[in-house]
Design a protein that fits this description.
homohexamer; alpha+beta; Tetrahydropterin Synthase, Chain A; five-stranded mixed β-sheet; 4 helices; 5 strands; 32% strand
Chain lengths: 138, 138, 138, 138, 138, 138
């Protein structure tokens, strides 16, 4: 494992969302999520960082070509999330509260099967410059 | 005018919006605004920078106390825009397309009457780190 | 452990300090700490990032509410450190050199007992954008 | 004036200060400056940006060599302000409240005589990423 | 002029260059440009910010569509400068030293004729986060 | 291991490079590396972050003095890489493709023997703000 290198690629998307658990009464949603629960949505410039860890291919000097990685995440994630309403437009959140934690797991679950099993994947998602999450984590 | 100093204060708010001119047909809206016109809204982490220019008060060494400036913009702008849908929740945009340009002018028009006439005010608004506007400008 | 997520929250405080070990002679302090040992203090805009790792609560979609986390760190750390002199005003440093390393450990020791045992805590502290530390670390 | 170009150079220094006007009673200082008036000082990572405007020298393609500009500001400003207490260690503030506004003017007055009269100089000083000033300004 | 708004759009390109004036002897080049004159080139991540100032179009709420602006700069500037050697690959610099000042003027001269005369254009170019230029400037 | 702290130090260098594997035919190089393979080089502002992990020295409160760390990396890495062409001027890349992955490993191999065995070292290298790597990694 001595020569494993992590490669990071940063992307972004702009989306609307609100935090809401439809299985809870509205006053409990209001108590739990405060202004994040307001009915007409708000939004964020999400910054998404993929971390892909593996061994260097001696032919290329790459663990993974960040251009290919960028194309992959744009085709399978950004094109579906960018300029959308996560609650209304992205099927994965029709029954899942779009917290940063859950968005990160959804993105991981989309991308994980598309990468070689010899590569590890970790997602970091910035909802704002001050609030961000990482998945998976040890 | 030799001792005029500009004081900047940065604030932020998170909001949803869509670009749409209701007086135009929908296909023209789609052509003009592309994915920014999608019906269910998207959103941004807006960064707002106030520039207030004036002479230094010799008692304080301040042109303006940035704490007071921050309170002013939080009371009159941030509390109304943050975690809201600009199109639906902010009356100023009920008939005005919430482009960055128009949002900057609306914020200027809210704050200008609240500041001393001896102070100049300029608004810079970042919709994303790559798209931003400034008003007024010479 | 499959669904553990790390949640990060960024806060800041501005403080004065100097590096000085009172148990060493002054010329040794000067040799070890250089201009950081100057007698009248200097200061920094400290950026503090909390990393809290745990399982997602299925009711909320949160590992931890960053609002609650922010309130906690403001009440127990920021209110005591911000706009203070770490050497003179913060009892933890009356006999402890306020290096970034030691400040991070002090903050960890304040916050650790206030969080659920099921959550892991890590502190990252930026003294400047170019010098920063992390504790604990494996 | 068609070919005038502005050249910017960014430097930084770390310093302690407190806001205090010794000609005012202490309760007035406390009211005006709040926690910035606390007696034992606090501090900042100041970011300083010089803007030097002039015509391009056709031999070099430079308005001014940023290396020379950096040396100049390091010799005459940074070496005197960095890791110091502005109130106690910098003679210019022995009778001048070290607000960001006043620090910017002091730096301008130090550097202005050291630059060719054919060059314009403007100072931008960041006390924090959210509070900054500019001098002179029209 | 009351309703003029400035719209900013940020782009980037990565390029190699060296500073060299072929009409001067080599020892003078070495003296003037130091390590920037080394023969085998070095390089930068250039950040380019366009500022376009004009009146808001009441139909769109835009001064200029930043998407159109981005396409324009990508077609006419980025595609020619990105991943190139400015001295060897960009004809404008075959007899012009590629200082940040000169690169900014070259970009301005490419884009100015492509924009409506009712719009003002200003270029800001970051060679590094600490060295940047602006053209034209008053 | 309870009191291990990681200390980070950020440095930077500007260099030219191209991606090219001389043991492969040119059309394969072109296919693999695209515009990064263009013959006349391009370049980057590389940001380099050292992470050094160890126990705090109770005399100093430091794991490692970041000033000493900075001097070390400047003497052994920055002075050799900065303002150079990695392919032509840095012997380590005469037979090694200067991808970010390989540059990080080269820097690690230079610095590792210069640090105490009781300290762990990790390299993070930013080729651009959106593409970066880390070595070693678990």
């Amino acid at each position: 494992m001595a020569n494993r290198v992590a490669v990071y690629r940063k992307e972004h998307f702009n989306a609307a969302h609100r935090l809401h658990n439809p299985s809870l009464p509205q006053d409990e949603n209001q108590r739990l999520f405060g202004k994040c629960n307001l009915p007409n949505y708000h939004g964020h410039n999400y910054e998404l960082i993929l971390k892909v860890t593996g061994e260097i291919d001696p032919r290329t000097g790459y663990v993974v070509d960040t251009k290919i990685l960028s194309n992959l995440v744009n085709e399978h994630v950004i094109s579906k999330f960018d300029h959308r309403n996560l609650n209304l437009d992205v099927p994965e959140f029709s029954n899942l509260n779009p917290t940063a934690e859950n968005i990160a797991i959804v993105i991981f679950n989309i991308l994980r099967p598309l990468l070689s099993e010899q590569l590890d994947l970790q997602i970091r998602l910035y909802e704002t410059p001050r609030n961000f999450v990482e998945y998976p984590t040890s």
